[in-house]
Design brief:
The chain is built from 13 helices and 8 strands. The chain is α/β, with parallel strands linked by helices. It has a domain of about 210 residues: Rossmann fold (3-Layer(aba) Sandwich). An 8-stranded mixed beta sheet has the order 3-4-2-5-1-6-7-8, sandwiched between helices. Strand 7, helix 10 and strand 8 form a beta-alpha-beta unit. Helix 1 packs across helix 12, helix 5 crosses helix 6 and helix 8 packs antiparallel against helix 9. The structure holds adenosine-5'-triphosphate and magnesium ion. The site of magnesium ion has 5 residues, from helix 1.
């Protein structure tokens, strides 16, 4: 069984890479074979958090056809169960991969020799990030417990839904243009075009597609990791955010972990100590251990819940 977990955020700098590195480490310590892959094209820096140098060939080699397999590019880390796939920061415009290149990359990622593959995605809503986040229902959304970050999370979800609409309605440009209203608004827009309105509109033209989309949305459970939580009161707005997501986007949000602010993180990064193993305090490690166990129980429990979209095959 193979579990791919795309790790994304609507806003940059919220801790995706810190969490990817340390969650990978926690899962490796539970006995899983794990690969962490740096898919933050243009901003690749996951190696720093693992205490590795950026002097190995990485994803760019594969994308420039100098390596025919991603498996040849993985390198060891401090933990024997944890391996690393270096990203690409040197080549300009690498984030604008075309559909064929994205598909080829995705297919190869599924071939990597690991049980769990964590994808550290770039922040925001570029096509690669949306594509990879939509590939499975197994992603994690990282956010700080602050309004800009949470609002960006909701915007990110709206864009992922629109990305799905593009896929389902690729043959009905007319209808897509009408649905554009859903995209060209913010979560605070009044009057709001909700996903329910959109589904109604689709249903009038393509009832089967509307039904599939509805099922897709119902199956979509967005797992949120709060990072840099300082006190419980920081999360006082959470019920409101869940209601917004439900009412406007027909999405259900679930909080999967709350990671504390850890002063040793920036101290370790200043002296280039790998964050995994010695660079992180017990408190942060403990919340990531709990997240790792939750992932283990949920995805590797008695019944597998992994739903992998085959969109990359039929786009
Ligand atoms: N739990 C934490 N405790 C303390 N500092 C943290 C924590 N998480 C992240 N940081 C700080 O925030 C910075 C940004 O984190 P990180 O690079 O993981 O964010 P990111 O979401 O990957 O950013 P980008 O969008 O640029 O890729 C880190 O360099 C670190 O200084
Ligand atoms: Mg990052």
């Amino acid at each position: 069984m193979k579990l791919i977990i795309p790790i994304a955020s609507g806003k940059g700098g919220v801790g995706k890479s810190v969490i990817t590195a340390n969650l990978g480490f926690s899962l490796a310590k539970l006995g899983h074979q794990v690969i962490v892959a740096d898919l933050d094209f243009g901003g690749a820096n996951l190696h720093n958090y693992l205490g590795l140098k950026n002097n190995n060939p990485g994803l760019g080699e594969f994308l420039r056809d100098r390596s025919d397999s991603l498996t040849n590019l993985i390198v060891p880390t401090l933990h024997p169960n944890l391996q690393f796939l270096l990203g690409e920061g040197a080549t300009p415009f690498m984030a604008n991969l075309n559909v064929m290149a994205r598909r080829r990359l995705l297919v190869e990622l599924y071939q990597l020799p690991a049980e769990i593959i964590l994808l550290d995605l770039s922040a925001g809503c570029n096509a690669l990030t949306l594509d990879f986040f939509n590939t499975s229902q197994t992603g994690l959304q990282i956010t700080r417990p602050e309004s800009p970050s949470v609002m960006n999370l909701l915007e990110f979800l709206r864009q992922t839904i629109y990305h799905r609409l593009l896929h389902y309605l690729s043959k009905d440009r007319n209808l897509l243009n009408q649905i554009g209203n859903f995209l060209f608004q913010t979560i605070n827009s009044v009057p709001v075009v909700t996903m329910r309105d959109v589904l109604q509109l689709i249903s009038a033209h393509h009832p089967k597609i509307a039904k599939r989309l509805q099922e897709d949305l119902e199956a979509r459970q967005v797992r949120v990791v709060f990072n840099q939580v300082e006190q419980q009161e920081d999360l006082g707005f959470w019920l409101q955010v869940q209601a917004l997501a439900r009412d406007q986007l027909s999405c259900s949000l679930e909080s999967w972990a709350q990671c504390p602010t850890d002063p040793s993180v920036s101290a370790a990064l200043k002296v280039q100590t790998p964050l995994v193993q010695q660079g992180v305090s017990e408190q942060l490690l403990c919340s990531l251990r709990q997240l790792a166990k939750r992932i283990q129980n949920y995805w590797f429990g008695s019944t597998s819940k992994i739903g992998i979209s085959t969109d990359h095959q039929d786009h």
